[in-house]
Specification:
Elements: H1 14-19, H2 21-32, H3 36-49, H4 54-72, H5 76-90, E1 96-97, E2 100-101, H6 102-123
Antiparallel strand pairs: 1-2
Helix pairs in contact: 2-3, 3-4, 4-5, 5-6
Length: 142
């Protein structure tokens, strides 16, 4: 039996958020593996209970994943809108957050958006899917 979502759940504390970061990383792995819908789905529950500003980072990743679901479904306007919305949110997290190379991801999203937009609604399905952003991490010395 599916669990019913609970509205108005309390927001996570910083330690609780850190403890749930594996969900974020799992969503990023799913995206890199081409499972865009699953990536969106994995991250959505965590996004709902995450306080700002991290909430916007998670929403940006959700929107990026949803944009590529829209491409798969042939939905041009939604693709462009979601890539723009994702990029707008990601800008405030550059260059890095939680080890995620946000600056590189942002550049890749903007490149993909420009390529898709240049093709236009009539030809955007001809876009080379090899241009889907790859999520990369920055390793820091500890």
């Amino acid at each position: 039996m599916a669990q019913t979502p609970v509205r108005n759940q309390p927001l996570l504390t910083p330690p609780e958020l850190r403890a749930r970061l594996p969900e974020f990383y799992r969503a990023l792995e799913q995206f890199n593996d081409g499972y865009y819908f699953e990536s969106h789905d994995t991250l959505e529950e965590l996004w709902r209970v995450t306080p700002p500003p991290e909430r916007l980072l998670f929403q940006a990743v959700i929107q990026m994943a949803a944009a590529f679901v829209h491409i798969c479904r042939g939905k041009y306007p939604g693709t462009i809108y979601l890539l723009d919305a994702s990029a707008t949110k990601l800008r405030q997290f550059t260059p890095e957050r939680f080890g995620l190379d946000v600056a590189r991801l942002l550049a890749d999203i903007e490149r993909a958006r420009d390529e898709i937009s240049a093709l236009g609604e009539e030809r955007f399905l001809q876009w080379d899917a090899a241009g889907v952003p790859r999520i990369r991490f920055i390793r820091t010395a500890e």
